[in-house]
Specification:
This protein is mainly alpha-helical. The protein has 6 helices and 2 strands, in the order ββαααααα. It has a two-stranded antiparallel sheet. α1 packs across α3, α2 crosses α4 and α3 packs antiparallel against α4. It is globular, with a radius of gyration of 16 Å.
Length: about 120
């Protein structure tokens, strides 16, 4: 791996790739659905919903899912595949919530994609 440093226990390379997951999911959603609604206008005096500092939990979950897939690919244990699926669904639901769409719909669309595309969206 090119990157050797770590951020919050996740390799810097994985972290950098993971933080792009959110944007990639937005593009993937447009590709899957084909319908895009305009984002609501922000009121000038609107207070921020939340401010997150530190590693993005979505990116960390995506990196953990990729780690689970790598481990499953190496040793083939069904329990590890189950962990990958759980983490993939967690990332899909979190991304959907951030985008304001139905988490179950996002999970179903992601699960219906072939494995290379599932991994591509996780990796950004």
């Amino acid at each position: 791996m090119i990157f050797r440093k770590s951020v919050g226990g996740v390799s810097a390379g994985r972290f950098v790739v993971g933080v792009t997951v959110f944007a990639t999911l937005a593009v993937a959603l447009v590709t899957i659905d084909g319908n895009v609604d305009a984002a609501p206008a922000i009121k000038p005096n609107a207070e921020p919903v939340s401010i997150v500092t530190g590693p993005d939990p979505l990116a960390l979950s995506a990196a953990a899912a990729l780690d689970a897939w790598t481990t499953y690919s190496s040793i083939g244990r069904v329990a590890i595949l189950g962990e990958f699926i759980r983490l993939r669904d967690l990332v899909a639901a979190d991304a959907a919530t951030r985008l304001g769409i139905d988490p179950l719909r996002m999970q179903a669309a992601w699960a219906g994609a072939d494995q290379p595309h599932q991994l591509a969206v996780l990796a950004g």
